[in-house]
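Here is an idea for our session: we take a single protein and study its fold together. To get us started, please write out a protein record for me. Once you have written the record down, we can walk along the chain together.
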Amino acid sequence: MTLPRSVYDEDHELFRESVAAFVDRELIANREQHREQRRIPREVWLKAGEMGFLGLAIPEQYGGAGVDFRYNAIWNEELARAGIAYGSSFSIHTDVCAPYLVELTTEEQRERWLPRFCSGEMVTAIGMTEPAAGSDLQGIKTTARRDGDGWVINGSKTFITNGYHADLVIVAARTGTDPKGRGITLFAVEEGMEGFSRGRKLDKVGQHEADTAELFFEDVRVGDEQVIGEVDRGFHHMMRHLAQERLGAAILNTAHAKHVLEMTLEYVKTRNAFGRPVGTFQHNRFLVADLQTRVDVTQAFIDRCVEAHAQGKLSAVDAAKAKWWSAEVQGQVCDACVQLHGGYGYMREYEVAHAWMDARVTRIWAGSNEIMKEIIGRDLGLGDPR
């Protein structure tokens, strides 16, 4: 990109160099092994913890760095070079779960969980999605009922990133009867609790480096010390933190699209057809020019959103715009880049094929693109009058 990215300063760029070295050494070099295992090994998490990458948003007294969100953004951008699956796994931990465990917890909970969160000894996941409740979180069926001085959780979750090996899962469960979402509470369910089990690793179309699993809760008994935030205020807590999750997704989408386009640009400069590089044909030249412009314009908007979020000013509506638009552009880029690779683009040995498979879900997760447009449309005064 020719325009300077003024959202980052010299310290941020020095941090980027450190992350880039880690990504090259630990992720890209071992990517095929991670894909075969269908997970990121624990030793990689521990190395990321040693480097200080997992506790960016965690206060220093608990072992974190306590830096602003721009460092998270750089972390995500560099992870996307290795594959968006790495970004999804690590960002669930660093971008999605971190705010819940910092802002909604008691001092005792923070001291108990955050040092291990930062070191990589404790991997986290968040259990919102259920078989019958995806983007509509008000449809959650998992329940937690009061029983003496504790709670008993029953239900299931699905499509949970890090779910197969997470040590702590933030679980949304219904504790009240309000149909509009009030009456949901968040609980920390930890590895080894009786009644907590995991199904198989789900067989996804792409993102094989990231484990994704079903979770089951059969009379899981937890005490009040496992409640995160306020009882019956879980829906409010989730709505408050979804903007950061969606911005994180947008950062990953855009960086991933940029990387795929860079790979493809090199390919069309060297792959010949009819005696000349395929990139020199007018259609392909115009197509690449179109894609590069889309990526650059998207990056400019994402950078402004990152800057706003670092200042505490990002709105839920702008986060929705960033999420759906970046996913749409990412899909356009990946599909076109497969086409530009010709038959080789459909071969798994080419990274562009993995990128194409990996990217398809970004228009679905973190709230489907259709739901993002609903949020934006309602903000424009076009809500359903019923």
The two ends are 46 Å apart (CA to CA). The chain is about 50% helix and 15% strand.
